[in-house]
Amino acid sequence: MKPIKVGLLGIGTVGSGTFNVLKRNQEEITRRAGRSIEIAMVADLNVERARELTHGEVEVVSDANLVVSHPDIDIVIELIGGYGIARELVLKAIANGKHVVTANKALLATHGNEIFKAAQEKGVMVAFEAAVAGGIPIIKALREGLTANRIQWIAGIINGTTNFILSEMRDKGLDFSTVLKQAQELGYAEADPTFDIEGVDAAHKATIMASIAYGIPMQFDKAYVEGITRLEASDIRYAEELGYRIKLLGITKRTPEGIELRVHPTLIPEKRLIANVEGAMNAVLVQGDAVGATLYYGKGAGSEPTASAVIADLVDITRLATADPEHRVPHLAFQPGSISNLPILPMTEIVTSYYLRMHVEDKPGVLADVTRILADFSISIDAMLQKEPGEGETQTDIIILTHQTKEKNIVAAIQKIEALNAVSGDVTKLRLEDLN
Amino acid sequence: MKPIKVGLLGIGTVGSGTFNVLKRNQEEITRRAGRSIEIAMVADLNVERARELTHGEVEVVSDANLVVSHPDIDIVIELIGGYGIARELVLKAIANGKHVVTANKALLATHGNEIFKAAQEKGVMVAFEAAVAGGIPIIKALREGLTANRIQWIAGIINGTTNFILSEMRDKGLDFSTVLKQAQELGYAEADPTFDIEGVDAAHKATIMASIAYGIPMQFDKAYVEGITRLEASDIRYAEELGYRIKLLGITKRTPEGIELRVHPTLIPEKRLIANVEGAMNAVLVQGDAVGATLYYGKGAGSEPTASAVIADLVDITRLATADPEHRVPHLAFQPGSISNLPILPMTEIVTSYYLRMHVEDKPGVLADVTRILADFSISIDAMLQKEPGEGETQTDIIILTHQTKEKNIVAAIQKIEALNAVSGDVTKLRLEDLN
Q1: Does residue B219 share a domain with residue B88?
Q2: Where are the alpha helices (H) located in A173-227, listed in sequence order?
Q3: Distance, CA of B269 to CA of A114 (rounded, Å)
């Protein structure tokens, strides 16, 4: 059979990894796919560097339009990133009857519905294994490996930068800003790390996973997004004393009322396997009604790990390219006509447990007042930690872990607690998931 | 579209799980598959119980031949087990043009080559996600998720019974036979546990994984198989003192000389995630050249977890049943014409590190003799532990961890060590893998 011809848009870290792995493992990949897969064209604004990276073996152009409209190209790989040009080019490629592989979570989480609809109408595939958790085949697991299951919840460490920062904060007892600076020096965090540390990147990925887990449209705008920038070293220490680790989790849960979709720092019991995922590694824990819990772990970013996912998509498409569209795996795991309209719940309605830290006067009656307020909102206490005041100090920290309650209850209770005279400053609230 | 009709051979634990999950999640599974999947016939010798389990909703027969030859049946699920009748029925089903789903690792590891050849010729699929690691979609990950990679090695906890026993031995400091009895009482071990505790079950699964990782035929007869029956509580304790856990691992590695394929108790560093997989859980660690290490964790057995894998295969087949055979994923991950003849290495040629425990006279010169012998075979020492003799005793244990060496070197060295006058009894030898 003649080779599948691939056009690559953007040859940065992942693009050059894709080129190199495809070349290095060409023989083995062809033995698997039954057909050779060949990058025939590359579009990059830096034509010079693109030529160097591809050793002059591939046609390089600066205008990506030439790739998405080229009659010889079967599959377009979009590695430009962002929502602007990338969206236009993906839609053009689809309109021209090309299959698309993309690692662009931001694009899919915000414009996925439009893109998948166009692909469906045109009878082409849009594959995106690389968009979530890098080289871990989590999209395939959710969309094909767990098809028997009613998926109940997913909780994932899906941003390596923040997991690296949290691991370092715990390991070395350092505060957020110090570790961020180190992470930037080591190349684990970008010069502008906003998307990572504010949880936006994780929310893009959680949005995609929710969509294929429950068969709902992409609804990034309804995700709750909270990053790790306000996390203090003391919270990590107190959590540890209570037997918990703090991880930035992307969480999505199915409840009778609707879908929870949220990203925030989360306490998890240290004895869970996922609590021990350290450094820049990713891991996704999926709870299905038949299979129970399964965990998927690996590198969530980087040149060749991400290329591994991009190429897996190329092989999948190569296997199915000439088959009838109706035999393919649906983009959102469920048939296009069977998408559910289960609503995404507002954050006030989600149910979870909480970690509360408050700074209080060390005098009788304070704890009675605090616990009375919690009781008034039917919030029961699971564990408590009160520290002795430092030498010569009159104030101390109280840490409370609650049982499950609705977010709106805890918010209301905190408001009352903060109004107490003996409580100074804000109450720190973190969410806690048992993941059992 | 009309429903896909499934015939079930054997309705025990996994069979009834499959029936129940298919029924409970029917709506969701149909939304995914695009077509309803229906168990239309069940064959079981115990017709009465089969009728009860299927609530009289399905035609039950005692003769499985009626199912594999029934013109309405599209897919046959084989859950009988063993190599005899199961092999005959699977081959008959294939000959009759039925697709087959099986959880039977023993059958595939020993007769897989014959079965896949027949399926290939007939243009039907034989799917076997449930044969390895129960509900964990590891076959899909290896065969489709990691297609970009040259797979370098796989190490898996792929037998829940033995992992439960090892976890209990470590946790409670009990010896093997005591824990085995408890495991049998709790239903974690069979009345005849030979296949599990002697490593045969794990070797069947490792054989299957090696085959699809490297594109080699199934060669169970060349696998090295060592169980956990001779493991002593003291070895688990000493390993722990040195920072290691002992797990029964199924290991397969690609080396320039050939493929290693072996099952044995293995020391692994306690800080590895897989070292912390406890109880009856399974986990498979895969090293690919592009993606690095990925880990897959979940329940490796049980009614609904295994049913989850069986049904995933049904959905895959449903999606591809009417498609051209050449667009399907090849049975052994590589195209039938591209199977490799890389040899399986004999055990004497494998390379790994070792844990040695010897019982010696507590007198000068013994350690010098032992280390001299190791040096003569170019085996270098990574760590050592010498215990003080008990009160009034003159003998003590020496534990040595070696760097990597060939198995035949360590065997020869042990022979010389055992011949020393100061060494009493056999030297205990366990293998150690760094898994880094």
Answers
A1: no
A2: 176-186, 194-197, 200-214
A3: 48
CB–CB of B264/B431 below 8 Å?
yes
Question: Could you list the residue range(s) of the whole structural domain that residue A256 is in?
Answer: 138-298
Residue of A nearest to B301 (CA): A291
Q: Identity (one letter) of the amino acid at B72? A: D
Shortest Cα distance from A129 to chain B (angstroms)? 9
- Nearest residue of chain B to residue A294 (CA atoms): B298
- Residues of A identified as active-site: 205
Interface probe, candidates A14, A25, A28, chain B, greatest B C-beta count within 10 A: A28
Which residues from chain B sit within 8 angstroms of residue A278, using beta carbons? none
Tens of pLDDT along A290-327?
999 999 999 999 999 999 999 999 999 998 876 667 77
Question: Does a structural domain hold residue B344?
Answer: no
ipTM for the predicted complex comes to 0.96
**pLDDT tens, B219-259?**
999 999 999 999 999 999 999 999 999 999 999 999 999 99
Confidence band for A328, pLDDT divided at 50, 70 and 90 = confident
Contacts of B154 (CB under 8 A, 6+ apart): B142, B206, B209, B210, B213, B250, B251, B252, B253, B284, B285, B286, B287
Overall size of chain B counted in residues: 436
A115 and A157, same domain (yes or no): no
Domain co-membership, B212 together with B104: no
Which residue from B17, B289, B297 is facing A273, i.e. has the nearest CB? B297
- Is residue B428 domain-resident? yes
Q: Establish whether B373 is an annotated binding residue.
A: no
Name the residue of chain A whose CA is nearest to B333's CA: A32
Q: Is B190 annotated as belonging to a binding site? A: yes
Asked if residue B426 belongs to a domain, the reply is yes
| Token code pair at residue A251 | 């969480």
Q: Which pLDDT score, from 0 to 100, does residue A345 have?
A: 98
Minimal Cβ distance to A135: which of B291, B307, B335 = B291
Angstroms from B183 CA to nearest CA on chain A? 21
Distance CA B169, CA A432 (A): 32
Instruction: Give residues with Cβ within 8 angstroms of B276, minimum separation 6.
Output: A273, A276, B245, B270
B345 known ligand binder: no
Interface with chain A: mutation pick from B143, B149, B304, B338, highest number of A CBs within 10 Å:
B149
Q: Are residues A289 and A311 in the same domain?
A: no
Interval B149-181: pLDDT, tens:
999 999 999 999 999 999 999 999 999 999 999
Residue A346 included in any domain: no
* Known catalytic membership, residue B408: no
pLDDT digit string, tens, across residues B326-341: 778 899 999 988 899 9
User: How many independent structural domains does chain B possess?
Assistant: 3
Query: Using CA atoms, how far apart are residues B229 and B166, in angstroms rounded to an integer?
Result: 10
Do B47 and B64 belong together in one domain? yes
Residue B144 annotated in ligand binding: no
- Of A144, A311, A334, which is closest to B140 when you measure between CB atoms? A144
B14 has binding-site annotation: yes
Mutate to test the interface with A, among B23, B157, B270, B294 (most CBs of A within 10 A): B294
Give the residue on B whose Cα is nearest the Cα of A26.
B148
Of A145, A312, A328, the CB nearest to B137: A145
Question: A268 and A206 in one domain?
Answer: yes
Indicate the average pLDDT of chain A. Answer: 96
**Quick check: B38 and B5 in contact, CB under 8 A?**
yes
Three-state DSSP state, A169: helix
Contact A137 B148 (CB under 8 A): no
- pLDDT for residue A1: 77
Predicted confidence at residue B89, as pLDDT, reads: 98
| Mean pLDDT score, A68-82 | 97
Contact residues, chain B, for A245 at CB < 8 Å: none
Average of per-residue pLDDT values in chain B: 96
| φ and ψ at residue B261, rounded to 5 degrees | -145, 105
Q: Is a pLDDT exceeding 80 seen at residue B322? A: no
